[in-house]
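Renewal narrative, Specific Aim 1. Our central claim is that a sequence can be written position by position from structural information alone. The example that follows is taken directly from our test logs and has not been curated for this report. It begins with the structure tokens describing the chain, in the order in which they were read.
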């Protein structure tokens, strides 16, 4: 590896750490600043922060790798994600921004769930915090796997060493600067990802004589677009599109909506965010497609399809550009890891420690406890990620489904249905999470297969969670008048702002 590549990566690491130090000096005096940046984040930073924290290492590694395995069927996942992200901006973003303020200035998603029902420490707060900590530890490990694979493939370092370098840098700036550091680094990382996912597939495509030449070589490995569309089953389409359902329940994404400086800024954030997402997803799919063709035409040996972006970065570009492109993968990985660490730490600090033990604790002490939470979650996720054989896409899909089913229906019903009660909220989280876990791990089908081999687990999980909310609310007590008053006040505020 040329020295200029290492120089480019070193510059990237220094920029991330400098941002963390800047944020440490400007926003971490109180817990609101550490967790939500004081609700003063610009729409530009909100959009790219939401996108970068969403499209983690799986965007540059998992999704191109899926093209090798699933071919053009991967397009359905991309379509589902685009639709889900758009409706997340339209349905959740404005209401959540207003409602979290109206509900006694809720700082975390579990805090909002509890205060939504007029409770400071309701059971829904503890249950949702536990789910966040559980699934985000798994989710974070997927990002660390991607980081470890990057250093192993690109620099021929030991996988575990690469993993530790990745987690070390992320923990440093997240622990120092909190939400502001995470958002600002996400913005920079989102810009890097955007350029990389335009540049790499374009330069790789230029190695072919024509589009027809590229597609002919691709067909040697995967079915053509027309064949893929004609032979795909309805259940496969539903499973792929259902990825979009996950957006409504992803704490590390929707917390961005809570932190944006005003509801009026959400429209601009939506336009920027959806434009960024459309280009980057097309770029990721194109990288996988051109990669399939390139491997066949030039006889390239590719041991792990999820590393095609890394391989292109090494063989098609000047070493200095290679360093920039490898930094794009690190950007994708780190942006998601930092967001997940911060949300997990926020739940440990605000929803567990403060809620149960020290409600009147000094703000600065609470911020320090939050920093310890970042370190603790990262340590557990690192231990889980030590298994190099883990599939990035599989890890992400499991955690994505867990959050989507446990929180997605609850977020939507909390924002749009005033008759949902507290018991229904708690029941829906448990029902959604348990359904997903059973679907993934219970070997109930012949040959020991699980139900997830039939349909993506988020579908039954989302349906069971939604049905639980409706049934338990119908047969249980209606929320108090004070709770319903806050709900209607939110609607009135939204009408005024619109």
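The sequence written for that structure reads:
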């Amino acid at each position: 590896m040329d020295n200029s590549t290492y120089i480019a990566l070193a510059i990237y690491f220094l920029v991330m750490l400098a941002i963390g130090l800047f944020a440490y000096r400007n926003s971490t005096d109180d817990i609101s600043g550490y967790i939500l940046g004081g609700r003063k984040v610009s729409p530009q930073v909100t959009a790219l922060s939401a996108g970068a924290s969403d499209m983690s290492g799986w965007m540059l590694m998992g999704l191109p790798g899926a093209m090798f395995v699933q071919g053009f069927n991967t397009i359905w996942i991309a379509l589902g994600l685009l639709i889900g992200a758009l409706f997340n901006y339209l349905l959740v973003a404005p209401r959540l921004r207003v409602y979290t303020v109206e509900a006694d200035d809720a700082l975390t998603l579990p805090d909002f769930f509890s205060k939504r029902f007029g409770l400071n420490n309701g059971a829904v707060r503890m249950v949702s915090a536990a789910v966040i900590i559980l699934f985000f530890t798994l989710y974070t490990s997927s990002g660390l796997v991607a980081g470890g694979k990057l250093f192993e493939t690109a620099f021929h370092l030991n996988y575990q060493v690469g993993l530790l370098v990745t987690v070390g840098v992320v923990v440093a700036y997240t622990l120092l600067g909190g939400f502001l550091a995470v958002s600002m680094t996400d913005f920079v990382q989102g810009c890097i990802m955007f350029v990389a996912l335009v540049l790499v597939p374009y330069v790789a495509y230029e190695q072919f004589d024509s589009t027809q030449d590229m597609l002919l070589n691709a067909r040697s490995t995967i079915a053509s677009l027309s064949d893929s569309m004609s032979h795909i089953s309805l259940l496969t389409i539903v499973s792929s599109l259902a990825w979009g359902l996950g957006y409504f329940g992803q704490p590390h994404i929707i917390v961005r909506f809570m932190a944006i400086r005003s509801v009026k800024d959400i429209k601009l954030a939506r336009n920027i965010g959806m434009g960024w997402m459309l280009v980057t997803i097309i770029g990721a799919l194109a990288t996988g497609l051109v990669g399939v063709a390139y491997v066949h035409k030039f006889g390239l040996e590719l041991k792990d399809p999820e590393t095609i972006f890394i391989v292109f970065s090494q063989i098609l570009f000047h070493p200095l550009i290679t360093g920039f492109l490898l930094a794009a993968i690190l950007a994708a990985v780190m942006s998601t890891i930092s967001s997940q660490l911060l949300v997990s730490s926020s739940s440990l600090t605000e929803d567990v420690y403060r809620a149960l033990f020290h409600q009147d604790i000094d703000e600065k002490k609470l911020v320090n406890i939050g920093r310890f939470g970042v370190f603790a979650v990262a340590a557990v996720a690192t231990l889980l990620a030590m298994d190099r054989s883990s599939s990035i896409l599989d890890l992400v899909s499991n955690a994505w489904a867990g959050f989507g089913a446990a929180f997605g229906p609850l977020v939507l019903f909390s924002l749009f249905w005033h008759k949902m009660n507290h018991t229904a909220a708690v029941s829906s989280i448990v029902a959604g999470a348990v359904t997903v876990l059973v679907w993934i791990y219970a070997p109930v089908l012949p040959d020991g297969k699980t139900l997830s081999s039939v349909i993506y687990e988020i579908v039954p999980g989302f349906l069971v969670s939604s049905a639980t909310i409706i049934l338990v609310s119908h047969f249980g007590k209606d929320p108090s008048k004070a709770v319903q008053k806050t709900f209607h006040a939110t609607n009135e505020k939204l009408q005024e702002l619109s």
